[in-house]
Amino acid sequence: MKEWASHFPDPEELERELNDYLKKKYGVRIRVMSPMQMAFKGEEDPSAKKSSGVRKIRFDLKPKDLEDYLNQYVVKQDYAKAVLATKVCTHYNRIKLQRERERFGRQHTVGRIKNNILLVGPTGVGKTYLVKLIAEKLNVPFVKGDATKFSETGYVGGDVEDLVRDVVTAADDDI
């Protein structure tokens, strides 16, 4: 029995070889993920240090700066641009403040600010484009998903896990 098992590669080695093949054939969007291991990270420079995404936030934009940036690309939609710029800046400045407070041993900030936004409008007015522009400006991943194509796991249609996988891929596994 041991002789039979010795002909099989190590699971990590097999996963690595399969991912190399898939990467050459299809690019980085398709990978084999073993249920017992984290996602394959590919070739990384060992000298490069990768910190967690939250710790490396250096945000110094003001809502007016972000709104001015959006004005370069989107005509009209002034209210949407103002709300998005304000909400995004509030979100990142709150994270920055919280990290500073933690560093000095202070308690978390009190209260909660609603950080969800619902953009409503007809097709082609720039809802997705505004969010995509903000993501590019802030150098954060952006993934667009059509919720009508998803179904419960096990049924015909896309799984919600596919959208999560796309987000992790867009973030270069930096979650």
From TrEMBL:
Origin: domain of life: Bacteria
Residue stretches making up the ATPase AAA-type core domain: 117-171
InterPro entries: ATP-dep_Clp_protease_ClpX, ATPase_AAA_core, P-loop_NTPase
Biological processes per GO annotation: proteolysis involved in protein catabolic process
Stretches of the chain forming a coiled coil according to its record: none
Alphabetized SUPFAM superfamilies for the sequence: P-loop containing nucleoside triphosphate hydrolases
Gene3D superfamilies per the UniProt record, alphabetical: P-loop containing nucleotide triphosphate hydrolases (3.40.50.300)
Pfam family, one: AAA
GO molecular function: ATP binding; ATP hydrolysis activity
Name of this protein: AAA family ATPase
Organism: Thermodesulforhabdus norvegica
